[in-house]
Specification:
The chain is mainly beta. The chain has a single domain, classed as Tumour Suppressor Smad4, CATH 2.60.200. 7% of the residues lie in helices and 34% in strands. It is built from 3 helices and 12 strands; from the N terminus they run αβαβββββββββββα. The chain has a 7-stranded mixed sheet, with no helix packed on it. It is globular. The termini are far apart.
Length: 187
Amino acid sequence: MSSFEEAETEETVTCLHLTFYHPGQGEKMMFRCLDFCKRQQVRADDTAKFGRDSSLCRYSLMDTRVSRIQFSLQFYRKLHTSEYGFEVKNLSKKTKLTVNQTELSYLNKIELPLKCIICFGDYQILAEIQEGEAVDYFEIHLHLAEAPILQERCLPSLQPIPENGISPSFSLSQGKSPTEIDENELY
């Protein structure tokens, strides 16, 4: 047998990818203490805290509008399964945290879906979980977004457009009231 055949099977590691964005990130440099270059190992029983106080938080955000401890991420094993997940807990008394539009007040927590957007103040964080099997630790890989993660989208009107091609909102904006037209009257 070769040493390759006798080698331990390499287990995959759960990795939480966090992509940060703030509209003032260029001039305010609030992310200057974050390491965007490599994955960072975190013990499974540790809580990853994010906030302004570098003595309490593993991930510091250099912004006076961020709470001393803004939020935490806790790695856990789901009950009666071999699957792992993360819970996010809002630790700010002043600022609400939203996860995919679910609002969390102080000390509220929620399980992170495989892909979600975490927001507080002007901060936007895209969280994506890459599943793995390792039980002793997980990894966090930080990324910096160049553009906003959330975009204001102008969605088209979901009102049906009549066969004559004129939108009812167009007719109303022209001061005309909508009228019903038989399709045979068009010709």
